[in-house]
Amino acid sequence: MESDFFMAFQQDLLDLSDLFNFSDLSTFTHNIPVEWVESALRLTHSASIRRRRLPADQVLWLVLGMAVFRDEPVHEVARRLNICAQGLASQELLARSGITEARKRLGADPVQWLFRQTGQCWGHERYPGDQWQGLQVFAVDGALFRTQDTAELREHFGSGNTSTQRQTPFPMLRLVALMNVRSHTVVDAQISPYRRGEIPLATSFLSQLPDRSITLFDKGFWSADLLLTLATQGESRHWLIPERKNIKRETLAVYGKNDALVRMQVSPQARKKNPALPEYWDARQVSYQVKGGMKTVLTSLPVEQYSASDIAKLYQERWEIELGFRDIKSSMQQNAVTLRSKKVELVYQELWGLLLTYNIIRREAALAAIAFERSPSQIRFKPVCQYIAVQLIVMAGSNPLSGTGRRLSELRAGVGSLFLERRSRPTTPRTVKISKTRYPVDRNAAPLK
Q: Residue 143 pLDDT more than 90?
């Protein structure tokens, strides 16, 4: 069975050789159909009949390589992965300015489009054990990314204020993502300047949620409009969110200890924005004990089918999307303070490339897990990312082409050995670490412009 799988896998790779040469990253991104790439490249801002040293298809793979090799300059990424139309990437053929201009010609739209295709197709795939009592589990949350401190980026993205009304040292942009919790695939995402709120960005995800699903939210997404719209636009689409402090509620029914049906008033501001909202809305309230304290969540799950203890346990999985953000920032970005791009369009391109590369790595890990009859969430992301980075360099300089399928079969087999070992973790109280800077801080410095 497994040998047949790898033979079909190798044949699929060789079928792509007519379009892409062996030096580009299509040897890794074989799961992306050629038609997706062709459609994405039609979105480039400019067209040229000239055969460039860095054509658009290879610039696209360069953007993916930038996400994997964060500690390397962009021109070094191109050289390592041998990305060049002439088949040999060198400093003589690829000038640094030429690489930047090639990225500008590509733009951010093709990368964004390709990411959304992977999310829509891979994010809703079913794996063994990926359901919770017949429902697919999704999560929505946001994260912030810093950019280089230039006047152009600060003007476009903006920044936050500190407690002393000074601006933050770097411009920031906001990412809000929808994730399949069990496979860790990012189904959809929105990127915006810092000042835009998370709730309007999350509203665009509602159409992506399938019937018979449950979506886990952070308390920052408390919105009657968002939650009621989610539940009414489809069949058996449920939500789960922590309670909001100081919210007024009326108990309508008591199902058991720490389990009740409550009624809340929809704010006049929300009804003004959406007149279709009712004056009151009902939700199930479930409380449970965590480390000596009580935590309360609200949900649309009916009491007839889902117990309070199961709901309390399910909400712990919301942390999985936080782990996904950690994988992107820590494992892929290697805890870099800022993104590397210095132009607005290239910042968007770089971040969409990060999300696309993350999905590709997760896809490889998921297929490897299935081959070993394990769950995709049991694969350790950081070792997989490092392992694939090394293999990409090896494959970029390997010959002949006939060995491609064998090398990628070995790659997937190697990925399949990187499973998590579930061990109990000692609880560590939160502490404030000392500043890492070795220079004195001028507390009276003028605010950043």
A: yes
